[in-house]
Write a structure and sequence with these properties.
The chain has 83 residues and is an all-beta fold. Helices cover 0% and strands 52% of the residues. The termini are far apart.
Length: 83
């Protein structure tokens, strides 16, 4: 498990296989209550999720990023990064 936290939410990333993110779960920091659970359609690399404002960011093996909405775990955007 990999984790990152904000003042109010803890994000847990579970690993599915070799260097692949299986799912991410958001827990309320005050009591550990599950807020949401998401399984990205595109596997992210084994990385600690980054949180920026209202997004949970997951880098992908192809150099792109999955940006999930912090409030519910749904995909907000998925751009391809130019190398």
């Amino acid at each position: 498990m990999l984790l990152t936290a904000t003042e109010s939410v803890v994000y847990l990333a579970s690993i599915a296989g070799m260097n692949e993110l299986g799912s991410i779960t958001a827990l309320r920091a005050s009591d550990g209550k599950s807020l949401w659970h998401s399984t990205p359609s595109t596997h992210a690399t084994q990385v600690i999720p980054a949180v920026a404002e209202s997004l949970v960011l997951l880098p992908l093996p192809d150099g792109s990023i999955n940006a999930l909405r912090a409030e519910n775990g749904s995909l907000r955007w998925h751009p391809t990064m130019d190398n």
